[in-house]
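Appendix B. Raw example, untouched.
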Amino acid sequence: MLASLGRPVVPAPASRKSLAFCAAALLGALVLAVLAVVPGAAAADAGELEAKLTAARGEAGTIAAGLRESQERLAVAEGEAAAAQAREDRLSNLLAEGQERAAELSRKLSATREQLAAERARLRRSRDALAARLVAIYESGTPSTASLVFSSADYQELATRTDYLRAIEESDAALADRVEQVRDEVRREAELVAALEARAVAYNERLAAARAEIASVRAAAEAAAAELNSISAERRASLADLKAKIGNWVEEVQEARAAEARAASLAEAEEEVGRWLGGPYSIPTYIVMCESGGNYGALNPSSGAGGAYQIIPSTWDLYGGEGEPQNAPKEEQDRIAGEIWADSGGGAWVCA
């Protein structure tokens, strides 16, 4: 209502007189509150953070795939290590068996060598006896049958000398045969010793090869397992670091989204306060709401003030209004209210 234009002036409550200031203070408080909770960097752009999150999740997927691959390779390596262990067990058994057989061959070789030495001694003795007999035959000569007959005194002596001569011949033949037999035994024993030595050398070579193979297989399996464990550890560390970064970025995204929500709330509050202070009217909305509730056809029967701005007829006529204020179009009421506000400000209304 326009008190300066003839309308009774009714003292306005303190709350109404300070409503505009309260609204402005409320707007400022909202701005300060939002600035207080939003970080200085305006909580990094959420779109950029989400792009980083997408890239990080892709990288995490790649690392996880690599980790699965290394774990699969580790499983294969562990299988190979198990196979190597089984092979090592077999080779160890072969090694133990070979050691036993080598020891047996060594014992047999020692016995054969001793037997060979004995046979060689027998051969030397037989050869010595044969040589002595040959020397005796050479020195005494071999008696002929005629000399034997003529030198015998009687038949009995002849028979005795004949038997003796036959025994000597048989002994000489047996001695020669024995020398030949011992020589053959010595040759066989020497061949057996050579064969046993060759077998012992072959077993030793097989044992050495088995030892080398065991060491090679074990070293390869241990190296592969160590390398894959190192790769898996590095990938697990990278994945854990990336997950930590993703967690931090998720928190930053949430903070950015919360900041955006607070900023949106602030914008809505500003818009609401703006509507309250200005809105669609030519004067602050709170004054219009207090005067008429925003009803352009309102009429105060006691003072005759009408329209949304509750302008009394004399003031309406003074500003060139036609007819009654409550019957005028909205544009006409807004125009005249704006002119009154420009001339008198809030003092023209009791609710201001």
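End of appendix B.
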